Amino acid sequence: MNSIGRVTQLKADFFNRDPRRVARELLGKLLIRKTSRGVLAGRLVETEAYLGQGDDAAHSAAGKTARNAVLFGPPGYAYVYFIYGNHYCLNVSCLPEGVAGGVLFRALEPVAGIDQMAAARGLDFANESDVDTQKISFLKKIASGPGRLCEALNVTRERVNGKSFMSPRSDLRLVDDGFHVRRISVTPRIGIIKSAGYPLRYFVAGNPFVSGNSRFNNATSPSI
DNA sequence: ATATCGATTATCT
DNA sequence: GATAATCGATATG
Description:
By secondary structure, the protein is α+β, with helices and mostly antiparallel strands. The protein is 19% helix and 27% strand. The chain has helices at residues 12-15, 19-26, 69-72, 114-120, 136-143, 146-152, 157-160; strands at 8-9, 30-35, 38-51, 78-83, 87-93, 101-112, 172-176, 184-187, 201-204. Strands 1, 2, 3, 4, 5, 6, 7, 8 and 9 form a nine-stranded antiparallel β-sheet that branches. Strand 4 (78-83) and strand 5 form a beta hairpin. It starts with 7 loop residues before the first strand and ends in a 20-residue tail after the last strand. The structure holds a DNA duplex.
């Protein structure tokens, strides 16, 4: 029930496309991370697209810097940034070298290594309020939100920025296990001021591990 | 269930 | 010096 069967790792061609299409098609894919304490994995249920041009919310909007260089590099590499003095956020670069674009990973449905991820998040299995580890209310605390996702998977800029998602035996991989997403919802992106309003947030409709709350999760526009 | 607010630092103006 | 692709705690309905 908890094992991952036959899988296909995503290749450069998958990422070498418009971030909106990549963001949409990443839903349902597995993000796999290896640590000294075992294999961690989750299914992507929420993403956001960040475009290179005309998207003032994107870190790449003002041009290439040391911080955002990965977004301008080849497709399929991890861009990790630190935000609000507290949190890391994980993205994958899209589009060919020289053209900026990326997808932010906002939420995972936990699949494997759940106890390790919970521990990395500081969640306590022995705590009375957390004692039912099968409950969605507990599992939702693991990786529902971009900062939580990074903490659960031991992702920091120092460890992960610039790393490929496409190497066969890497400790950071994106794979297709054949899971089919039924329906996708689209809303504006969360937590941004500039270029707000564009429908560039994608999530699996009805999935309980999507971040935010009802006020964010009413789908508006259809998109690509 | 929803709203508000403080934490804390890399990056850019 | 201001800002930020967030989170968790607290307060209130």
